[in-house]
What does this fold into?
Amino acid sequence: MSIDARVETVVVLPNGTGRLMLVDRPPFNGGYPGIAGQDYLLFDERPASVNSLRSLDIWGNASTIMLGDRKIAERIGYTRIKFVSESELAEALRAVQS
It folds into this structure.
């Protein structure tokens, strides 16, 4: 259940639930592309900064989703995730943008 993907789209529904739509990560510096592993990840609670994940690369395993070297979510089953706190997600976003 590994993921090496780019977040293509963030879909947020009026009730605060949503999904991250994933595509294979493009290759870095002539290397190999990532394999998304699945088409989407569902979430039940929307952090305020979730839309900032659009176009960013995420990766993870059966229990964790990472942005760079920071954990941004726990995997709850195959397609469902639970985000870390808003402040932790915001810090992870700042780290990859600097």
Notes: DSSP finds one helix and seven strands in the chain.
